[in-house]
Structures
1.
Amino acid sequence: MNNTIERICKIYGYLAVQEQSGADFISSKELAEAIGTTEYTVRKDFSVLDIKGYTRKGYEVKSLKEKLGVKFRLNKERRACIVGLGRLGTALLDYEHFQNDGFEIIAGFDSSINKIERIQTKIDVFPVGALAEVVSSRGIELGIITVPAKAAQEIADVLIRAGVKGILNFSPVKLNVPKDIVRLDMDFTNALRFIAAKFVIQNK
Amino acid sequence: MNNTIERICKIYGYLAVQEQSGADFISSKELAEAIGTTEYTVRKDFSVLDIKGYTRKGYEVKSLKEKLGVKFRLNKERRACIVGLGRLGTALLDYEHFQNDGFEIIAGFDSSINKIERIQTKIDVFPVGALAEVVSSRGIELGIITVPAKAAQEIADVLIRAGVKGILNFSPVKLNVPKDIVRLDMDFTNALRFIAAKFVIQNK
DNA sequence: ATTTTTTAGTGATTTTTTTCACTTATTATA
DNA sequence: TATAATAAGTGAAAAAAATCACTAAAAAAT
């Protein structure tokens, strides 16, 4: 199920690009190539989701994107915040792609008042003490954690209590979250490890 | 197979921490909890890899880490470079965890000479024209791409021709690489999409 | 010394995921 | 108008992954 969701998210992103460039129809084969899977898998995913295409034409870009948007609520604009305004956190604050893709970073938090005062960004920044209040009052649904490892779990707890639905975790620790909350880890070291290990195994 | 590699990488990271804190033995159950899987899966992975533990004690931390290190070559120090010294790229340049975990960022590249001159870091930075030469002469095995989408494929091509084994891609495009090269995408927008979509599906 | 408890090891089973093989529909071409 | 080609749709098969159910070993407790 996770695999399907992941593929659908990639497809959705690709469709957004295709829509911009004016494409009307797209085949399962092209979609498969774009996201790195097979045409069979794409068609099977759509089949399960009860999404229909047109023989010899493929899927209509606009309506496909619309349908996926509805089914997975990817059409809804969602608010996010970043906790931890170190170098990575501040880089993400101004990451321009989020805005174009249905996500809006509307707040940043840091434990250092000093840092907050020095930061140059259009986005509102707050001391971490304001986290719970700002998250719930502004309807923030997603929390991005870029604090040091030792503070990460505590921040996650506060975010969840304040009502976020999911956490994107850049700290290299495994966060405990209730099972209705979605957590996704982006551990750069693990990513490099994976690449190195996979290279070793597959070219052995 | 990818799943196993991913789990092993996480386990390896966890073992490094445990080793530091002086733990001698660790059970499949604790490992499973630490990386978010089941004890069965951990034991099955080890069983396939012909890694043995001790009844009623678990696995010896030191020798387990050693064995995984050898089997997946995670014990070898590997050199990496970052191409694209925007905010994300420069944040990664100084990402302190890499050093402690067997990866060394030894060069950064950017197309803007201006940017290169202004950057404050201990790591050597070069104009992107020097990429091929520096990568091959310094034995860089991993390339981290943080350039804008439109430049990403070209950079990937140069990196691969210069001999990198794997690419960690932060740009939001699907890179074409030969199949013996490992590519891992870190697309932040997709990550947020996945979190949002999964929340919708699982709490439906 | 015996029993209980804990934890690994692994073949078998189950579940999930992917791929295949074939049908059907529609457009393009001869 | 007939034929060829293309691409979706989907049940069935295969492959992959995870889980279970059990055994065995060793330590701890009685």
Note: The first strand of chain B starts at residue 25 and ends at 26.
2.
Amino acid sequence: MAPTHRGRPPTSSREMLQDAAFELFLEKSYPKTTIDNIAQRAGVSRATFFNYFPTKSDVFWVELDEALEALSVELRQHSPTGSPAHALEALRASLLTVASSMGADRVPFALTQSDLLGNTGDLQASALTRFSALTAVMANFLELHRTPPATARTTAYACLAAAVSAAQQWADAGTTRHGLDSYLNAAIDPVIRGFRGALT
Amino acid sequence: MAPTHRGRPPTSSREMLQDAAFELFLEKSYPKTTIDNIAQRAGVSRATFFNYFPTKSDVFWVELDEALEALSVELRQHSPTGSPAHALEALRASLLTVASSMGADRVPFALTQSDLLGNTGDLQASALTRFSALTAVMANFLELHRTPPATARTTAYACLAAAVSAAQQWADAGTTRHGLDSYLNAAIDPVIRGFRGALT
DNA sequence: ACATTAACTAGACTGAGTATAAGAATTCGA
DNA sequence: TCGAATTCTTATACTCAGTCTAGTTAATGT
């Protein structure tokens, strides 16, 4: 019988804290919910919250951060071919792979409840920071595959726009929802075709 | 002799506070500079700083905020024609008009000294928020001119990417610098031509 | 039993941002 | 000239996210 854990066992988890936070955000909006509130709801101390999340707004982006990491992993599987057009298709494939791992029942809270939360600068800013990181991952991949830097950047931003649109449609679909990948493919197809034309 | 001002005269201005802030950022980096430091350097109280700027990071973006406002004004001069392709050209023209009003000697501090400032999340986030606002202005304009919403958004993001690239080249040009509009036109031309192809 | 490891906690602190009442400096009008 | 109106400044208290530290707790390993 091999113990798999050394040290004191955790009494909490990111999921518990995230759940507590989302409950409270719905009850009293994001700005009116303090870290103390969240920690108390989850049954831990305020300092413990910061053992799990760097900032308050980070509870929002667990799924997006996972997807971003998964995308980086997917893109690394594609070894450089020196062909920008191939890179575009690889980028599409990687995005769709990541999107397809998000089933119809895993829509992030941030997408479905954004109206109810109260709009604050830090929440918006935390989203934009992640969009910027996503754009950088895509642009770096394209550059690695011999796309000129300015074109790589423009393409990456256009793909970001398509991805944001797709995510919004995904969230809005309600009971008729299917996988994110189909929305994403529809949104990104004109972008990829347009830039492929410019690259050949 | 008609007095033009009623009430107590200001002892400070946005420019004074901005100058004080930039001096201090260079001396000790952005994160290490407090609002107290800035206010003291400018000879006013800390509370007075907030009469001039909403947040610490806003001192960075005076020029960009002006440009964003100027762009909105320019775009409003173009009455709707129902032609997305015309809208693209109007957008380009408006962007270039705003860019040409920034002579070679008005490069924002944020562009030329970004290395020395110390990278913090709030600074990056404040920039991204403005980029997002710029994108929204452009996308709304395109939609007003009958561009489908998803295409408007994608185009706007691609224009943003081009504009960011142009601004960076502008800042990097040093003593050989000319007006921002020439860099912007070079960067944005392939984007406009690409999307015009998709719209016709 | 003790050492090591990992998680939790209380409490103090910092600094951005908010708010308020009072004071200060000007112009206007009776 | 004086009081009212207007505008700007200030000191101060406060909130709260985020940082840090020393000590406690709960587990495993030797």
Note: Chain A has a mean pLDDT of 88.
